[in-house]
Amino acid sequence: QSTWARYMLRHPPVHTTNLAVSEDSVTALCLTGSTLVVCAFDHSVRVWSLPYRKCVRVLKGHEGYVTCAIVNNADLITGSWDHTIRIWNLARGQCEKVLMGHKKAVTSILLRGNFIISGSVDHIIKIWDITKGEHLFDLIGHTDCVWGLCWFDDDKIISCSKDKTLRLWDITKRVCLSVIDANLSSSILRVGCWKKTIIAGCKDGKIFVWKFRDQDNTYDYPIPIGSCQIHSDAIMDMTFYGGVCFTVSLDSTLSLWNISDDVMKSPLQLKPSQTFKTLVSARGSNAFSKKPALNYSSALSLTVSRDLVVVGCVRQELVIYRWGRK
Description:
Blueprint: E1 7-10, E2 26-32, E3 35-40, E4 45-49, E5 54-59, E6 66-72, E7 75-80, E8 84-89, E9 94-100, E10 106-112, E11 115-120, E12 125-129, E13 134-139, E14 146-153, E15 156-161, E16 165-170, E17 175-181, E18 188-194, E19 197-202, E20 206-211, E21 223-229, E22 235-241, E23 244-249, E24 253-258, E25 274-277, E26 299-304, E27 308-313, E28 318-325
């Protein structure tokens, strides 16, 4: 029996509000507990209470659209097209620090302990001290925009770039350990890692998978596992939860599929387990309608919790699904 059969999305989508979730396209999402952070093309960051189905706070300060967000205890960290990273007190809605140093848009951020790691259109990865609000050092190697970052282990990260390569970095030693150059035909927009399995999502809708050997401590080059046409357009966001990989695309679909140790034996398990059209809008009077809307829009962002999958789209749309294991 297929290992991904344990997972399901329950229809219809569950909506949290009958108001617009933002005044523009939803570019980044972050879900923590019952709080949903919605970032948008209108430069705003909105904090929504899911139980009360309302926006409780609007954070303003960025001068470009917000590309990424992550919650750290009481703090919210956002990156923007205005070249800056802002650290907000989530409860008070106040900006406490502004990190400036990138020369172009910030595209992705990671957090570990007191350190923030940011990728940018300026080709550079920067490491920051979140407590002091100071820039520590740079990781330089990519020759084009850094679109995505993910953790490989406690002191190593993987970056993906418009230069069509992936790089494995040792943060402690400040060096690049490996460059994965697979001669891809399309830019890599998102990267994720489950255990030592690396998944890259590309502009042409394909995913590519590699895996480092368990005993390999040299990280010369991972084993290529395979590729699959998951979407018909660019993969805009990717995240993992409990061994399941979720992707959303400009083709207006959400896909979830299992990544397990079995993938080494059967690349066919890269096939999407479920794909759904993002059909229902979370704005206007039809927000609680049980019938899916006829019009749908491209998916831009994604966040997942233990029981919810939230997809942000263009045209102020937000789609929320309940999901779980049978």
